[in-house]
Amino acid sequence: MTPKTAGRSTRPYDRGFQQHLIDYGILPHAYEFPDGRLPSEPGNKEDILRALAQPRASLSPSHFLSHDFRKFQRVEAQAMKERDITTSVVPIIEGILEIKSVSPVRFANLDHLTDGTLVPGSPDIYYGARPEQLHPQIRKSLQGCVVPSTQNDLPVAPNFFVEIKGKDGSAAVAQRQLFYDMSLGERGQQALRSRNPVYSSYDNEAHTVGCTYADGQLKIFACHANLSPMPGGQIGFVMTQLRAFALSNDVDTFRQGAAAYRNSRDLAMKQRNEQLGNQMREYAGMKSLRSVQPICCCGSSAFGPQLHRNCSGGIDILGYSWECQKDPVQQHDDK
């Protein structure tokens, strides 16, 4: 569907933005439920932390020297505006890039995350896949979850985001923006991970990573999906802070923080590419069948051997619609 805004739009700068997200099960870092319970942490948190801690040859003492750090300090101190930081500070943190980042793009092509009152997400930097990594038919069937823009040559299925603030900017706003971006990204990753574009399979693991950078402070977060214990039990998203670094403090902290940033970016790419590869292989296998087994719209079994009673219909990963039979019917691939 095409997103539409009803009435006044809510922005991350508005006081009620975070509460709006919470009302829809999108929980910030360190959230505590009214009864004292805590949201689950991602099941792969320790794996992510180990990946973030891996050293980078480009940041070793023999490659990134003390005078390189002093240059970073000067550049960071002189960059006052958000654009200055994006163009002069962040490239030093990023290092030599082999992946194209895009900044900024309004995610106006994605389906609404809540009730339609939120403005489209617009991350300062995001990383996604090249469109040709996902078959056009899959892009079409999942476009409301994985294709952020109608400009069809921009990256799709983003799962790494950065929000930046200038010296006078608000770190709290940056976090709200990032949590919104990451929820959109993780929803897309869940849609890709599921064989059913409507009913995703939630594994309690984080597949989306993001960072805020404000006044020399780098914070890295993970986002995972879960069934929200909030009233209604809708699917929710939980943010977990992984690491924090005062990059302008000393050269060792910079090396650790920049390594964690680059490793988190690479980890997100690895997770994304693995799932895109699975989707393309699955698509190729399905195309080899004369008739494609549909996915039951009740979500009880993906590509199962039967259609189910009381189902009104559904859509398969190739985008073909179908109608369930009144009684369970065995599906065949007979020519």
SSE order and pairing:
Blueprint (H helix, E strand, L loop, with lengths): L16 H7 L2 E2 L17 H8 L13 H13 L3 H13 L30 E5 L6 H6 L1 H4 L9 E10 L5 H23 L12 E9 L2 E11 L7 E12 L4 H37 L26 E2 L5 E2 L13
Parallel strand pairs: 1-6, 3-4
Antiparallel strand pairs: 2-3, 4-5, 5-6, 7-8
Q: Return the structural class.
A: alpha/beta
Order of helices and strands: HEHHHEHHEHEEEHEE
Count of domain modules = 2
- Pick out the low-confidence regions: 1-6, 196-200, 288-335
- Work out the number of β strands: 8
Question: Could you describe the 3D structure shown?
Answer:
By secondary structure, the protein is α/β, with parallel strands linked by helices. The protein has 2 domains: 17-285, no CATH class; 291-335, no CATH class. The chain is built from 8 helices and 8 strands, in the order H-E-H-H-H-E-H-H-E-H-E-E-E-H-E-E. It has helices at residues 17-23, 45-52, 66-78, 82-94, 136-141, 143-146, 171-193, 251-287; strands at residues 26-27, 125-129, 156-165, 206-214, 217-227, 235-246, 314-315, 321-322. The strands form 2 sheets. A 6-stranded mixed β-sheet has the order 1-6-5-4-3-2, with helices on both faces. The protein has a two-stranded antiparallel ribbon with strand order 7-8. It is globular and about 50 Å long. The model is unreliable at 1-6, 196-200 and 288-335 (pLDDT under 50).
